[in-house]
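[Primary structure, fold]
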Amino acid sequence: MAKSLFEELGGKYEWQGDYLIPCLTISAEKEQPIGTWGQRHLDYLKKYRKVTYINLLTSSRLNAYLADIDRQAQERFKRLIEGLKQEQGITEQLKAENALEWTGRVNNIRACARGIVNNEIIFV
């Protein structure tokens, strides 16, 4: 019996019951920490961009891709918060004078920045 292309390229089969199943493995990729933004993007890929998810997973680039997305989103989030704080005049003096108002305004800014990052980076 002639070898298949898979066997010619070094692939092997194993018997499972009455069937020959190819032995497929995904090469190990370097583990990188993935934060909240990367996890959100991973969920988005799994639900709405399945082909992209499978391509990244099988090419062993998923972890590096998610780590990069996480880094970009975190940097964008921090820049947005600082810019919006300056734009709205939220200072440490306000924090010292009226902590409750400062907390409310900063939480509002964080919510706006989170929405912007989600729309620009995560859910794209």
Remarks:
- The two ends are 49 Å apart (CA to CA).
- Residues 62-88 form the longest helix (27 residues).
